[in-house]
Amino acid sequence: MQIKRIAVPVAALAVIGAVAASAPSAMATTPASGSLVLTASTAYVKSALIEGIGAVVGTPASASYSTTGGVSATFPVTGGDLNLNGYSGAAQFGGSIVVIDARQHRTVTFTQLAFDDLSGTVTGVPQGSTTPVALLDPSGDLNVTTDATTGAQTLTASETDLDPAAATYLDHALCTAFFKAGTAVGALTLTFTPAS
Amino acid sequence: MRTLRPSKPLLAAALGCAAALLAAGPALADPSVTPAATDIVGVGSDTTQALFNQLSTDYTGTPHLYSWDATGTSPITPKTGASSIARPNGSSAGITALAANTSATIDYARSSRGPKIGSDPTGLSFIAFAKDAVSWASEKSGDAPTNLTTADLKSIFTCTYTKWNQITDISGYTGSANTIQAFLPQLGSGTRSFFESVIGITDAQVGSCVNQTVEENEGTNTLLQTKDSIVPYSVGHYIGQVYGGHTTTTDAPGPLVVQETNGIAPIDTTNKVISSAEASSPYARTLYNVVRTADWNKGDAHATALKAIFGSTGYVCKNTKAVADVKSYGFLPLGLCGGITTT
């Protein structure tokens, strides 16, 4: 039943995702690289689908689903000066997130995805706006590691929570009452190798 | 410090009021009672000791939270049944003591510096909780300019510059021929370690003209009360002293003011916080509490107690009063509060 509700919007969103995609900026040196992997747990996905709510990602991001791990979406790093060990800087990611309410036939598309290390949130800019909205807050066990050989820094969060700003924005934009601040959505892994 | 706790059964009905009074109480130095063996007890950094005295007073969970100051009588017996240890003065000393003992003596170390992979003991978890910055301080109307570059600071603390008139890269400043009196906190200070790192020197490169005996963030020291003194200073701690009113007879700025580095004003005087420019500069630093990784991951009641205080959803990161305390003591709450880096 849930699949039927989102089948049509998903088909349309492939186009939206393609339009929203942005190419990494050209750099003279080796650009920053890495990825942001956001996971939505099976439980959260199920609760959303029951309400007719789903999400897809736009290129160059990609997504996959497993019955045990839920939905996993990968967004490539496109730039930034993130210093995870110093808890400073920010990283930007390609791709988009499209949140769909199949019942209301409404969608919200977030592009310009970013992670700011001081605020510690994943943000996105809603289509038609220039102001970022805080989407997800890393929580649970937060671990920061650095690969001494490659310089790659990794942040893992055993939990991500829906930011209050995202809950308010999505409920307003989609005319729903589904999104609750602080809801555990899934997990996060951010890997970032600085430009050199 | 935690105020003396009455017997819980006797005052069970009045605990709510009692807790409220405790929360409103002033933070004092060192525990006034010997903490129980199961309490969470810390030592180390001077920079965050005042904040943790306050947090210890405000935390109403059990086991209780205690914090020993960096200075005072020594040795100390941190908790019931603990070994007697020399009082750790500073981040590195606290970290060393944490690694050298078990939870029977110390549970955490306050640290104003990050982990030093390769030189810090292994098996430790640095748990981030706030942002601070380090600048330098001098007397308001002294001989120092109001701004110095990183190159100037390096020259001063290596004694390449010994007189103010050797500083020639500050627009509009003509220094006097007076001798610069440079000071650093003691070895083992996290503030010293960070400051040396950011100006690009090591302990071994500190010049012989530098006095290395002062306690950090204490402008009350008469040695510093000259027009030619210069000393690194925690910007957050200074804000806590000046704007938060968190001072004691020794823990106060005295005549010192925190000055600019590389033209960046360290304080947003309107909002009374570390300026955003300073917070994103190389002089910004992260503040940590350090625990043994094995303790953190053990899955027992002690691990639960540590996570209830220091974890990403714990007291220091999420409790409204605790976050207000962090701000009141001049530091910036960290978005990724509870982030862990292991050694």
From TrEMBL, chain A:
Residues 1-28 form the signal peptide. Keywords: Signal. This is Htaa protein.
UniProtKB/TrEMBL annotation, chain B:
Residues 34-299 form the PBP domain. Residues 1-29 form the signal peptide. SUPFAM superfamilies: Periplasmic binding protein-like II. InterPro entries: PBP_domain (IPR024370), Phosphate_ABC_transporter (IPR050811). Pfam families: PBP_like_2. Keywords: Signal. It comes from the Bacteria. This is ABC-type phosphate transport system, substrate-binding protein.
